[in-house]
Amino acid sequence: MFIGEVVGNVWGTRKHPSLKGRRLLLVRPIHPVTGESVGDVVMAMDGGVQSGPGSIVLVVDEGGSARSIIQDEAAPVRTVVCAVVDTVSSGGKVKKYT
């Protein structure tokens, strides 16, 4: 799992049948407290939390868990946005994102 910022949308004219009606997003991993970029942008499916560009999100980056969240074991999915983050508290520091 990691915390990231949604930086864009992905559109495809053709999708696997299990992805129809699901939103694909570009997510940049960030440091949870400083908000600084800590990795490369990845593509993730919105797990039903209605995130979009600018949202700070919690991302599951493991196939079995990702498919469990969307409740489709046949989906070709590895990375899913599972929550929108409001606040992070770590080491006595608090970062509010809303």
Describe this protein with a few key phrases.
98 residues, mainly beta, OB fold (Dihydrolipoamide Acetyltransferase, E2P), five-stranded mixed β-barrel, two-stranded antiparallel sheet, 8% helix
How many domains make up the 3D coordinates?
A: 1
Overall radius of gyration? 14 Å
| CATH secondary-structure class | Mainly Beta
Distance between the termini: 21 Å
Report helical residue fraction. under 10%
Structural class comes to mainly beta
In DSSP terms (H or I, runs of 4 or more residues), the helix count works out at: 1
Q: So what's the overall shape?
A: elongated
Examine the coordinates and then state which fold CATH places here, giving the name of the CATH topology: OB fold (Dihydrolipoamide Acetyltransferase, E2P)
Examine the secondary-structure arrangement and name the CATH architecture: Beta Barrel
Could you list the spans in which at least 5 consecutive residues all have pLDDT below 50?
Answer: none
Strand order of the largest sheet: 1-2-3-5-4
Q: What are the secondary-structure elements, in order, as H or E?
A: EEEEHEEE
